Amino acid sequence: MKKVVWGLVILLVILHQDIWFWDDSRLVFGFIPITLLYHSGISLSAGIVWYLATIYAWPVDSDSVPSQEGEEA
Predict the structure, then answer these.
(1) Which of 8, 10, 15, 35 shows a CA-CA span of 20 to 30 A to 50?
(2) CB of 46 within 8 A of CB of 12?
(3) How many CA atoms within 13 Å lie on the side-chain side of 50?
(4) pLDDT digits over 29-62, tens only?
(5) Under 8 Å CB-to-CB from 16, ≥6 apart: which residues?
(6) How far is 60 from 1, CA to CA, in rounded Å?
(7) pTM of the predicted structure, to 2 decimals
(8) What is the C-alpha to C-alpha distance for residues 43 and 20, in angstroms, rounded to an integer?
(9) Cα within 13 Å of Cα(2), Cβ side
(10) pLDDT at 2
(11) Per-residue 3-state assignment (H helix, E strand, C coil) for the chain
(12) Long-range pairs for 55-61 at CB < 8 Å and ≥24 separation?
């Protein structure tokens, strides 16, 4: 699953470069520019991918602090 998360991150990086909407002045729902809607979708997708990364790709022992001998907690 870790490779899938990395693949999604790379896909988001590629999709973030939206050269296909630069000159498009269409409005979605009559008021929101297509580029703004596209970037809103990218932002929501990035949040979902980050959630998946914390669940499936986060290192298990990264939150624990190694204790030193002779030191009380």
Answers:
(1) 35
(2) yes
(3) 6
(4) 999 998 889 999 999 999 999 999 999 888 777 5
(5) 42
(6) 15
(7) 0.70
(8) 18
(9) 4
(10) 84
(11) CHHHHHHHHHHHHHHHCCHHHCCCCCEECCCEEHHHHHHHHHHHHHHHHHHHHHHHCCCHHHCCCCCCCCCCC
(12) 56/1, 56/2, 56/4, 56/5, 57/1, 57/2, 57/5, 57/6
**Residue 1 structure tokens:** 């699953």
The answer to whether the CB of 56 falls within 8 A of the CB of 2 is: yes
Cα gap 10→65, rounded to integer Å: 31
Task: Give phi and psi for 54, each to the nearest 5.
Answer: -70, -30
Residue type at 31 in one-letter notation = F
